[in-house]
Amino acid sequence: PAEALRHLESIVERHPADGSAHARVAKMLEREGRFDEADQQWQQATTVEPTDPTALLGRAHNRLATGDAATARTLVAQVVDGKWQDRFWQATQEAKSMQTQLAAKAP
After folding, report:
1. pTM score, two decimals?
2. d(Cα 9, Cα 42) in Å, to the nearest integer?
3. Nearest residue to 25 via CA among 101, 17, 39, 75
4. Using CA atoms, how far apart are residues 51 and 32, in angstroms rounded to an integer?
5. Calpha distance 83→14 (Å, rounded)
6. How far is the C-alpha of 46 from the C-alpha of 64, rounded, in Å?
7. Residue 91, Cβ neighbours under 10 Å: how many?
8. Is residue 4 within 8 Å of residue 28, measured between CB atoms?
9. Which of 48, 69, 72 shows the shortest CA–CA distance to 59?
10. From the centroid of its chain, how far is CA 88?
11. What does the pLDDT look like over 66-97, one tens digit per residue?
């Protein structure tokens, strides 16, 4: 995994404006339990590709994994309430499902 992560990080270094590269690094970091570092990559993916809701959703999952349901709710609401291209319909549907689940768990 360390070698794969180094490879992905080198892709991010060469293509810092590629949100999908940041997302791949984030997923690899999450698999290694490095959630805070992964969160930084999700944030970067969102910054460089603000018209792609999948990074917001990825970050919402990340925050849930760390117990930060409040941030996850905010991120999911951004996806549900956002105006996205039709090709992101799956991300929107997943966000709606997460929103329902998070509402059921709300204190």
Report:
1. 0.89
2. 13
3. 39
4. 28
5. 30
6. 17
7. 20
8. yes
9. 72
10. 14
11. 999 999 999 999 999 999 999 999 999 999 99
Do the Cβ atoms of 38 and 48 come closer than 8 Å? no
Structure tokens at 49: 């590709």
Distance CA 22, CA 48 (A): 9
Q: What is the pLDDT of residues 58-68, one digit of tens each?
A: 999 999 999 99
As given in the structure block, the two tokens for residue 43 are: 């944030």
CA dist 41 and 39 (Å) reads 5
Helix axes 54-65, 69-81, angle to 10 degrees: 160
- The first and second tokens of residue 73, run together, are 């709710």
Q: In terms of DSSP H, where are the helices of 32-88?
A: 35-48, 54-65, 69-81
Instruction: Collapse the DSSP code of 4 into the 3-class scheme (helix H, G, I; strand E, B; otherwise coil) and give the result.
Output: helix
